[in-house]
Specification:
CATH architecture of the largest domain: Sandwich
Helix content: 40-55%
CATH class of the largest domain: Mainly Beta
CATH topology of the largest domain: Jelly Rolls
Radius of gyration: 20 Å
Number of domains: 2
Structural class: alpha+beta
Number of strands: 10
Strand content: 15-25%
Order of helices and strands: EEEEEEEEEHEHHHHHHHHH
Number of helices: 10
Shape: globular
């Protein structure tokens, strides 16, 4: 019986807090790109697709990476690879969560539900690739940890900057945009216990109407929508990757009444939790 979603630890790849890997075509059988279903990491994973294309699934959303595109997969997101084109050239950077600054973490968390790669121009792609190669070389040369971490942080900042460019310009950042970022960060931590806008408004010391107004203005969707999507996503992960009963999953997600949880899931997904499990385990 599968009790928990498999979590891949950073130390399964390296004894350091960061490492770089390269992949060339479908013949590459590295553990990072094997078709291992329902796995989640305890670290950040950054992918630069330089050439060709590949397909990955992140929280049941299929994503196609094409030439000069990047994506960040956060700790906890369930993911696996479904396709590596023969022309694929990609670089992967894995980084201990402790090395990600609060600012950059906020940028990546804000895009938690976007499930879309970010396209970058060829110049930025080449520059990012050069930084990744320098970070890799510093590890092979066993340079001091300060050098390795500085180069790694440069790479992470380039990923973060690319993500930030797809949002509103820095000169247009408003208080409402900041509140939305704070809300999404809190949501990732408290979705099992905080089920209403009021819970998050209390955390942010603002009113529920103001929180709803801020989130709706910046995302086009309500606070309730984002709360529901976070709960639904984790429910799908548990249904797919564990053998927990619906009642156990409901309790783990903060619902004492599993019948209510069953209705909640069914209304959003248009199938019952058990129907979802059967459908995705074929």
């Amino acid at each position: 019986m599968k009790k928990n979603i498999p979590t891949i630890s950073l130390n399964e790849f390296t004894n350091q807090q960061t490492s770089v890997f390269h992949f060339f075509g479908e013949q590459d059988n590295s553990v990072l790109y094997q078709k291992i279903p329902h796995r989640r990491d305890d670290h950040f994973l950054f992918i630069l697709q330089k050439n060709g294309y590949s397909r990955i699934v992140v929280d049941f959303k299929e994503i196609t990476l094409t030439e000069n595109s990047i994506i960040c997969i956060l700790p906890g997101q369930v993911h696996y690879v479904t396709l590596l084109d023969s022309g694929t050239q990609a670089s992967l950077l894995i980084v201990d969560s402790e090395l990600i600054s609060k600012k950059n973490r906020g940028i990546f968390e804000e895009n938690y539900f976007d499930y879309q790669p970010v396209s970058i121009n060829s110049t930025t792609s080449q520059f990012l690739n050069s930084c990744l190669e320098l970070a890799e070389a510093s590890q092979k040369l066993s340079t001091g940890s300060e050098v390795i971490y500085s180069l790694t942080n440069t790479c992470v900042c380039l990923f973060a900057d690319a993500y930030e460019q797809i949002k509103i310009s820095k000169t247009d950042i408003s208080r409402k945009h900041i509140i939305t970022k704070q809300f999404k960060s809190l949501l990732l931590k408290h979705f099992r216990t905080h089920k209403s806008a009021a819970n998050y408004a209390d955390e942010l010391n603002i009113s529920s109407p103001y929180l709803n107004e801020a989130v709706k203005l910046t995302t086009g969707l309500t606070v309730s929508y984002w709360i529901q999507q976070m709960i639904l996503t984790e429910a799908k992960r548990l249904l797919y990757a564990t053998d927990h009963t619906v009642k156990e999953i409901a309790y783990e997600l903060g619902y004492d009444d599993h019948a209510y949880f069953n209705r909640f899931f069914s209304n959003l997904e248009k199938m019952t939790p058990l129907q979802f499990r059967v459908s995705y385990r074929r």
